Amino acid sequence: MTTPHQKFGFDTVFDNAGGAYAPPRPKRLFPADEVEAIRAQAFAEGERQGLGSMAALEAQALSQIAAAVGQALPRLAGVAHEHREASAALALACARAIADAALDAFPVAPIRAAMENLAREIEAQPRLIVNVSAQLAEGLQAKLEETARAIGYPGAIQVRASASIGPAAFTLDFGDGAAAFDPAAAAERVAGALHAALAAEGLHAEPLIPGSEG
């Protein structure tokens, strides 16, 4: 009876010298210092991976914040511009109220100031014609003659009431020249200049809070 051949198994490995080679068995017991080193290495690796994940999340959050700020800035600029326009309108309204009150209390003061500033221009003129509203004309002649004496004007002053001149407005005609003052027209010019400046400035004005431009 023939004995069957046993198949060759590959569980035995031979080294270069022809001897059997046994692979090292994995350690089952580790010294305390080696366990501590492995633990520290694992902790460091986990910490590195955790920090990497945190950095990625932080970068993502910063990107989202930047996108949100980029969308909000145009609107904020618009709100700031509207605030400037509203502030300018309020300032103009307050200025007009103050000016009207001052003119009501001292209606002759602008005419006297004009005569004092034009003293050199009118000193050689024989006559000064002052056109005012009918409301302002009453009693104005004596007041202006007093001002004329104070500035050394030797000519005659003639006050004329005009229906086309508004309250507190006046014109001075001294032959070689003329001067005029209209508080309503002056207020309109100031408002127009301010609105033009705001329009030119647009949404590119300086920040409302110093240093907020970063």
In short:
Keywords: Cell projection, Cilium, Flagellum. The protein is of the alpha+beta class and 214 residues long.
How does this structure look, described?
The protein is α+β, with helices and mostly antiparallel strands. The chain has two domains: 32-101; 107-199, hypothetical protein PF0899 fold, CATH 3.30.2320. 57% of the residues lie in helices and 11% in strands. It is built from six helices and six strands, in the order ββαααβααβββα. It has helices at 32-105, 109-117, 119-122, 134-137, 140-151, 183-201, and strands at 13-14, 20-21, 127-132, 156-161, 170-173, 178-181. It has a four-stranded mixed beta sheet. A two-stranded antiparallel sheet has the order 1-2. The chain is rod-shaped and about 155 Å long. The termini are far apart. Mean pLDDT is 80; it is low at 208-214.
Largest sheet: 4 strands, mixed
- β-strand number: 6
- Which word captures the global form? rod-shaped
The helix fraction, in percent, is 55-70%
Structural class: alpha+beta
Helix count, per DSSP? 6
CATH class of the largest domain: Alpha Beta
**Succession of helices and strands:** EEHHHEHHEEEH
- Low-confidence region ranges: 208-214
CATH topology of the largest domain: hypothetical protein PF0899 fold
CATH architecture of the largest domain: 2-Layer Sandwich
How much of the sequence is in beta strands? Answer: 5-15%
Radius of gyration: 48 Å
The whole-number mean of residue pLDDT values reads 80
What is the first-to-last residue Cα distance?
Answer: 100 Å
Strand order of the largest sheet: 4-3-5-6
